[in-house]
Predict the structure of RNA 3'-terminal phosphate cyclase-like protein.
Amino acid sequence: MAQPVSLVHFSGHNHLRNRLVLSILSGKYVRIDKIRSEDKNPGLRDYEISLLRLLEKFTNGTVIEISVTGTAILLKPGIILGGTLQHECPTSRAIGYFLEPLIMLAPFAKKPVNVTLKGITTDEHDFSAYILRTVTLPHLQLFGISQGLELRIKKRGAAPGGGGEVQFMCPIVKQVKTINFIDPGKIKRIRGVAHAVRVNPQFSNRMIEASRSILNRYIPDIYLYSDVYKGDESGKSPGYALTLLAESTTSAIYCSEAISEAGVAPEDIGLKATRALLTEIEKGGCVDEKHQTLVLLMMVLGSEDVGRCRMGEPTNKTIQFLRDIRSFFATSFKIVSADPSDPECSQLVYSCYGTGYVNANRTLA
């Protein structure tokens, strides 16, 4: 059988989620091989297979072929179905790992999305449910996706036992708006949530005290909230974390998080999160490092107009994502310094011409 014309080929297990998302949005087949082929335990991990199963449930007509050894996959994308579904996430990765690709796909589904995911809500590798709710979803609102966009944290679940549950709801749109976001503004308020599950509830207050000891020097409008979950809602394992976000006058949001570690005092966790937030603010831009890929993807899918956004320097993940966008959508970005007259300026303005992506799935209904 002749190879289909629109097949994109990659090697290695890195950036798997973004490549699967781009494949489903662009309708191009993707083949990924040499997945940990040199490893003692080669092939896909349980969380990657779980993600493929979730994408299969979330779409209609998607065919996923996995080689016998699990070191190669071929994805033939179908249409994004959406609707109501439940998924049990393995405890090897947090819910954020599975929810991030869904957030990119959900606005372009056939039916409004209502997904319930169960597993770990907070770990050190992925976005926690709280960051997804307070930072990731407001970034979608920049592109005109707002009515009915919601993430509910029903139960917390710390690693390793999990037991958390979140519900994600997203409306569908015909097309996303073009963004022009180049004024980062000044920080006007700082918000945060400290949560402690199955440990002494005083831990939340200790993290908040430590965080305030630094933040009070800068700005008066600080509200750090202590979130206590009791009984069944607190999952199966003990743990605590502090999530902080700073919002600017132009609604740019920077976030940071620190999670409980064995043998580390809650005060140190509070200080770690606070310093991470100040580092993120220092890097500047209108979008923080963690959300570069989401914003760039929505810019590419925007209406046929030039979208611009000011961000910090691209991370390695973002650089690879830009290359992958060129492979799938044949769109390149123009990246220039935000302030050409200042040689010290590390911020960049990313601009691209949107592809005018229209949600064809909803018109098939």
